[in-house]
Design a protein that fits this description.
CATH architecture of the largest domain: 3-Layer(aba) Sandwich
InterPro entries: Homeodomain-like_sf (IPR009057), Recombinase_CS (IPR006118), Resolv_N (IPR006119), Resolvase-like_N_sf (IPR036162), Resolvase_HTH_dom (IPR006120), SSR_resolvase (IPR050639)
Mean pLDDT: 80
Domain Resolvase/invertase-type recombinase catalytic: 3-140
Helix content: 40-55%
Structural class: alpha/beta
Family: Belongs to the site-specific recombinase resolvase family.
Keywords: DNA integration, DNA recombination, DNA-binding
Number of helices: 7
Largest sheet: 5 strands, mixed
Strand content: 5-15%
CATH superfamily of the largest domain: Resolvase, N-terminal catalytic domain
GO molecular function, one term: DNA binding
Length: 209
């Protein structure tokens, strides 16, 4: 039988009672006080030094014991990743509040259910994303990056070029707060000019037929 390594965490320094309660639960479960790693750190932080220290000490046959699931994992994804890391060391995870020991068949079932729930959640997110994109396309807009110029602005640029061909690309680009390449592209798409490196609209060539 391997060792029992305990981990306890509270979010702020004002929660000493909560920390003491966790440590008491761990010692009652057979964890030596010297084998308990504890820290004051918010659960939203990915870098939890004492948790990493506890994980580093694990050897084959050991158990990582935690009083409450929410003291260990920040999310379902985090739980599954930690479980995989612990299993990779040949150790197991014990969650006292859930009466879970991943070395047992019921404990493995618990983790499997959590994994299925994570996949289901990811699937729902993916379906919602696809549905939103389909709705956007149906309304005549493409999801993702917003176009630099609206159709109305493109028409204005074409009209401005045709009526005021003394304007430079730089001047029109400045008026619409876009790059010169964007202006060249809009005029080229309209079949009015061909793309050239010159900056003068008046010198841009009309495409030959």
């Amino acid at each position: 039988m391997g060792r029992k390594i305990g981990y306890a965490r509270v979010s702020t320094g004002g929660q000493e009672i909560g920390l003491d309660w966790q440590i008491d639960q761990l010692t009652r479960a057979g964890v030596n006080r010297s084998d308990i790693y504890s820290e004051h750190i918010t659960g939203t932080k990915a870098n939890r030094p004492e948790l990493r220290n506890a994980l580093r000490t694990l050897r084959e046959g050991d158990q990582l014991v935690v009083a409450k699931l929410d003291r260990l994992a920040r999310s379902l994804k985090d739980l599954l990743e930690l479980d995989a890391e612990i299993r990779g060391k040949g150790a197991s995870l014990v969650l006292l509040d859930s009466n879970v020991d991943t070395a047992t068949s019921s404990g493995r079932l618990f983790i499997s259910i959590m994994g299925a729930a994570a996949e289901f959640e990811a699937s729902l997110v993916s379906e919602r994303t696809r549905a939103a994109l389909a709705t956007t396309r149906a309304r005549g807009r493409q999801g993702g990056r917003k176009p630099a110029l609206t159709p109305t602005q493109k028409r204005e640029i074409i009209q401005r070029y045709q009526e005021n061909n003394h304007w430079t690309v730089a001047q029109i680009a400045g008026a619409y707060h876009v790059s010169r390449a964007t202006i060249y592209k809009a005029l080229n798409e309209a079949g009015i000019v061909s793309l050239r490196t010159t900056d003068k609209l008046s010198t841009l060539e009309t495409p030959t037929s």
